[in-house]
Amino acid sequence: MRSSVETNWAGNVTFTCSVLRPRTVDDVMRAVRRHDDIGAVGSRHSFSSIANRSGALIDFRDMPKKIELVGSTLVRVAAGVTFGELAVWLERRGLALQNLGSLPGISVVGAYSTGTHGSGSRNPVLADSVVEIDFVDGVGDLRTVRASDPEFAALAVGAGAFGIILSVTIRTEPTYRVTQRHESAPSWNATAGEVDHLFDSGYSVSIFTRWEDPLIGDALVKRRDDVDQAPWSGLTATEAGPDRFHLGGIVLDNLTPQDGTSGPWFTRLPHFTIGARPSFGSELQSEYLVPRPLGLEALLALRARRADFLSCLLLSELRTVAADDALLSPAQMRDSLAIHFTWVNDVARVARAVDAVENILRPFAPRPHWGKLHAFSREQVLASFPRAAEARSVFDELDPRGAFASSALVDLGLRSPPER
Predict the structure, then answer these.
(1) pTM of the prediction?
(2) Could you tell me where the DSSP H helices lie in 62-209?
(3) Average pLDDT of the segment spanning 167-186
């Protein structure tokens, strides 16, 4: 193992600890036993400080990227494997995942741990596919928790609070094909029913906006060839030829095909292609999930006060997420509208914009994405996630000495302060 001083992907978080690169499971177990404040880092695409520790971080890049079938429909995936790597492996075997996020280069375990999601009115957060978690607990022992175990709902979206995850076992399904195209989104005068109609018109739908134009923006509608047989939404398709793929009018060269052609699921569900630079290349991100029935009202409130945050916004993305039962999922027990902000990479300006957005959204019961920038206090977290205290109790039991109880997690109310 070796250590170094490193940062997250965006460069806005410098890890104030040693970054360890174990080669074996035994190395991981020894590292946990040796450090009082330890965690893990994946593809480093979290923008918040939730992964940071004062002692050490486990980086899995030198561990085997093992993927193996468990029976015919389950797959066990080692920490360090990205969704792009997993997708290619599954496709070769005629298998697929239910959904993907916008970036195929993020780590599977990290995405599950922070409540990352794709889009789709029928699609919950990505962690909903997990049925088993293998991890090193707070005393350095190997543990396995299954979906049938009472503590599983706390661990499914665990925010790094209970252990070092070594692998997850997830559900798969037979491979399928997806057709993606651009469509114009409704105007800001649209009814909630009209907006819902667009979100429900495909398997996965994203609306992109800068909050200014008469139209909300434009939409990427992704439809499963084997499921979505009804006509398209009826809205006008926008120009998106093979040389002009774009997000919200911003032309990029790293996007998946948007020209109405069909392709394998993993070449259409993400916005960005495997192996390309992620997203805009230099940015910060925030995201909040509000109950879907309050979605349009929340959007109109943001539009009315867009001057409070627009100066440092690159683009916003709107997606729907189905309810799930993970205790710390931002969509826990409620169908949600996810409101995402891609900001310029300016920490001070973005902090002010985040404060403004949270003030605007406060009447609409927002919940933050754990891996994105937010300013939620402990009190706000406990009020927004009604079963957070229950999750904290499970984490404290699995980690009695507080090895994973970082200051960030304690400040959020997700861990009790360790007795050191």
Answers:
(1) 0.94
(2) 83-91, 108-114, 152-155, 192-199
(3) 94
